[in-house]
Amino acid sequence: MSKTETPIIILNYKTYMESTGKNAIQLSKYVQEASQETGVNMAIAPQAVDLYPIINEVDIPVYSQHMDAVSPGGHTGSTLPEAIKQVNASGTLINHSEKRMTLADIDAIVEKAKELDLVSVLCTNNVKTSAAVASFNPDFIAIEPPELIGTGIPVSKADPDVVSNSVDEIHKINKDISVLCGAGISTGEDVKAALELGSEGVLLASGIIKAEDQKQALIDLVSLI
Amino acid sequence: MSKTETPIIILNYKTYMESTGKNAIQLSKYVQEASQETGVNMAIAPQAVDLYPIINEVDIPVYSQHMDAVSPGGHTGSTLPEAIKQVNASGTLINHSEKRMTLADIDAIVEKAKELDLVSVLCTNNVKTSAAVASFNPDFIAIEPPELIGTGIPVSKADPDVVSNSVDEIHKINKDISVLCGAGISTGEDVKAALELGSEGVLLASGIIKAEDQKQALIDLVSLI
Amino acid sequence: MSKTETPIIILNYKTYMESTGKNAIQLSKYVQEASQETGVNMAIAPQAVDLYPIINEVDIPVYSQHMDAVSPGGHTGSTLPEAIKQVNASGTLINHSEKRMTLADIDAIVEKAKELDLVSVLCTNNVKTSAAVASFNPDFIAIEPPELIGTGIPVSKADPDVVSNSVDEIHKINKDISVLCGAGISTGEDVKAALELGSEGVLLASGIIKAEDQKQALIDLVSLI
Amino acid sequence: MSKTETPIIILNYKTYMESTGKNAIQLSKYVQEASQETGVNMAIAPQAVDLYPIINEVDIPVYSQHMDAVSPGGHTGSTLPEAIKQVNASGTLINHSEKRMTLADIDAIVEKAKELDLVSVLCTNNVKTSAAVASFNPDFIAIEPPELIGTGIPVSKADPDVVSNSVDEIHKINKDISVLCGAGISTGEDVKAALELGSEGVLLASGIIKAEDQKQALIDLVSLI
After folding, report:
1. D3 in any annotated domain
2. Residue A58: phi, psi to the nearest 5?
3. D136 in any annotated domain
4. How many Å lie between the alpha carbon of A179 and the closest alpha carbon of chain D?
5. What confidence tier does C125 reach under pLDDT thresholds 50, 70, 90?
6. What is the pTM of this model?
7. What is the separation of C-alpha A163 from the centre of its chain, rounded to a whole number of angstroms?
8. Where are the beta strands (DSSP E) in D24-131?
9. Cα C196 from chain centroid?
10. For residues C105 and C122, is the Cβ–Cβ distance under 8 A?
11. Which of C177, C217, D40, D111 has the fewest CB atoms within 10 Å, measured from its CB?
12. How confident is the model over C108-129, as a mean pLDDT?
């Protein structure tokens, strides 16, 4: 399976205890099993500190949650793109609503991801910002209305137009960009609806991470694809 | 050697290529050897992504360069203190001049470090701010005049009073805090001068990281102690 | 009445429409009248853009809500302390919970306020941070537990110890600093309780700004002093 | 003269002492005189605190240097768009390199400027980011390579392609946007070259503000148009 094959499920581990440290490694194994059992491409975005141990345990695409737009040098506490590459991460989320970046830094970090052959998953909040960054040519644009994140109300139901219109506007500029959607996604119905709106996958977090049976929740998630 | 034994040399890896990834692991072995050969306590602060592989290779105190003042939850791209603890880091730098924090967050993160039994190395810029945070009771306060960082002009020569006055003011409030100094430190003379001013160690970066022979530079650094 | 005479009521205009532009000027006249009628010192902190017209209409202490720790130069969009002084503002809030500053910047801006003879009202969130910044020697320290701001639950009832302990700890370091409290204050009872806990005034916003009769709300506020 | 008539010279006052307070008012009169004498549209962007007194003294377009993407409410120390409008400012700079904004906030503030009928001057750093935000449809896009700001090396000489390519890319998306350029501009030759590259004006600061004779410098600036 290519690391950008779609449909794709990207699981953002955020900083939940259920997806940190030893739990993160266990969850990553569940994701790998669910991906193998269902044949659906599943990628994960753990915290920077957990990237190395996870990458050494599983063979699925592993992304960083963020990279800073800095060059090697004196930048204490920053996440250096070259360091992410050296631990063999496959890619990175960019501009997540919980880690917004300036326009100039988004541009710089998409470029840097290309230079380093890292998959770029650029997060946006509406149709207009999605269209704006399509010209940066990231691998994925993940549209997530911030007001729906963590609510359990799926974007595919609450605001289907934001998904289909983003797909249209992005593809007017660049047909090669795969559009994802996120916010409130937790069931197979949600994913099915998302794909029917023209997206090629979903970015999600608490819907799976907080599930009692994380692996089963993942299998259910892709059951209607 | 206890992880807070002084004199202590703390090497901040920042985001230099010479202290990232494979280079970071090699450098960490040099630090361990130099510490063993000289009997001087040496700690390191690599990037978050490099903590796990380094901690599995060496047996010296390993600190994070930063922790975010967030609780477990939805905080994409943040450095969760609990995640730092789970990879068995010994401690953390706090409020480095390249990663300044708000007053409220400094207080919260020193508290969190104590809860998690992590050594706290709180960085400050002058005598007044050093005195201010002494009441937070961190393990170390590292005073670094920002205008000297990376210059090669040692604080112990350029501004000896900032070191000795910080030691005095901090110890008026709490005698148990070990005071370090930093900025421009690169030679054995610099370290000797720093200790004579009442500090119990140094925090440094480029002076060692950019040295042609990093291990020898470390040995030279503590040769006059 | 001296501009730092206590008890003092400081009304933070924030960015409410009821305290912006023409409304801000009208509100400022009410504050002046309430102060004259009750004999209690009342100061106001409007938005930067409204400082000039307000200062030309009323003769009460007028503070900026914030100043940036920048020197004159190339800093587009910053609030320059010297500019605040030139419009004849009396002082400034510093480090409000909605505009937190780094420790180094708080130190710098308190110093700058002294140089410019501006009254400094330094906001803090708990006893420890209040004690920490007492060594900076601001004119006022205003303790506001952020979780109570805008709730209508007065700090003087919800957490009286945070007020009295802050007063104690601050006065151990410097008896000349007047301690204020804030968060949830809206009635004469609240203010009375705050003063009985050792504070010398209150910092408040929505409790007055959102009142149907702003002037009467101010008069009621100080009715039990 | 319409407030968006081109060619246009926009003078960013930043936080220089030469363009603060009383000096800002004097400078604004010089700009008005230079505009009247030369017939060239000249706008100014003073600090927020100086907007009111300047707008009451001169009759040229006056912009804010920044507006925060906040709605009326509890936002101490922010620059509320509605407050800028109430003092009769004509418009605002957005995303200046010294006050970068997130992508989501740039979108929100351009929308807010339109709602409030404020001219929007959106600053960008290169061709790609200029093209990206053209879909937001601001009145002006001002391209300023940050590495040239304040150098005295004019963008029109140092990097003419960035100007002409920005004009091309922006006009592919929206022909109605006027493109400005900035960074290092100080002479009539610089302005002439900028216009020949397809821009319709310049955004500049120190080249005029630091001039010995500010008014003459302005007249010289447009002498070759």
Report:
1. no
2. -125, 165
3. yes
4. 17
5. very high
6. 0.95
7. 16
8. 41-45, 63-64, 91-94, 119-124
9. 19
10. no
11. D111
12. 97
Please, are residues D94 and D107 in contact by the beta-carbon 8 Å criterion? no
Task: Note the pLDDT tens digit of each residue in C88-102.
Answer: 999 999 999 999 999
CA pseudo-torsion sign A59, A63, A64, A69: positive
Residue D65 to residue C76, Cβ atoms within 8 A? yes
A214: pLDDT strictly greater than 80: yes
Distance from C172 to chain D by nearest Cα, in Å?
30
Identify whether C101 is part of a domain: yes
Alpha carbon of residue D110 to chain centroid: 14
Strand order from edge to edge, sheet including B201-204: B41-45, B8-12, B201-204, B178-182, B140-143, B119-124, B91-94, B63-64
Judge whether B218 and B42 are in contact, CB under 8 Å: yes
Q: Tokens in use for A184? A: 């409130």
CB C130 within 8 Å of CB C166? yes
Sheet holding A63-64, edge to edge: A41-45, A8-12, A201-204, A178-182, A140-143, A119-124, A91-94, A63-64
The two tokens of residue B158 are 């350029």
Q: Is position C3 within any domain?
A: no
Residue D112 in contact with partner chain C when CB distance is under 8 A: no
Query: In the numeric block, which tokens belong to residue C176?
Result: 């000349």
The full length of chain A comes to 225
Rounded Cα gap, residues D27 and D17, in angstroms: 11
Q: Do C52 and D47 touch (CB under 8 A)?
A: no
A19: containing domain:
8-221
DSSP codes of every residue in B28-77: HHHHHHHHHHH--EEEEE--HHHHHHHHTT--S-BEES---S--SBS-TT
Spell out a b/e string for C120-156, using b for 16 or more CB atoms within 10 Å of the CB, else e: bbbbbbbbbbbbbbbbbbbbbbbbbbeebbbeebbbb
Q: How many domains does chain A have?
A: 1
Closest CA to D67 of D84, D44, D51: D84
Name the catalytic one among B57, B144, B189, B212: B144
Q: Chain C residue with minimal CA distance to B125?
A: C104
Q: To which residue do tokens 């148990």 refer? A: B176
Segment (H or E) for A11 = strand A8-12
Average pLDDT over residues D155-165: 86
Total residue length of chain D: 225
Cβ pair B98:A86 closer than 8 A: no
Residue B217 Rama label (left phi>0; alpha psi -120 to 50; beta): alpha
- D142/D204 Cα distance (integer angstroms): 10
Which contacts of A156-159 are long-range, i.e. CB under 8 A and separated by 24 or more positions?
A156/A181, A156/A185, A156/A190, A156/A193, A156/A194, A156/A197, A157/A190, A157/A193, A158/A184
Query: How far are the Cα atoms of A76, A194, B167, D101 from residue B12, in angstroms, in the given order?
Result: 8, 46, 22, 30
Return the pLDDT at A157. 81
What is the torsional sign of CA D194, D196, D200, D201? Answer: positive
Any idea which residue has 């194994």 for tokens?
A: A29
For the stretch A160-193, pLDDT in tens is 888 999 999 999 999 999 999 987 888 999 999 9
Q: Does D107 touch chain A (CB under 8 A)?
A: yes
* Binding-face residues of D in 132-151 toward C, CB within 8 A: 149-150
Beta-strand runs (E) in chain C: 8-12, 41-45, 63-64, 91-94, 119-124, 140-143, 178-182, 201-204
The strand pairing partners of B91, in sequence order, are: B63, B119
For residues A37, A43, A46 and A48, what is the CA-based torsion angle, rounded to 10 degrees? 140
Contact in structure between D190 and D154 (CB atoms under 8 Å): yes
% helix, strand, coil for chain D, step of 5: 45, 15, 40
ipTM: 0.95
CATH of the domain at A203: 3.20.20.70
* D31: nearest Cα among D63, D74, D79: D63
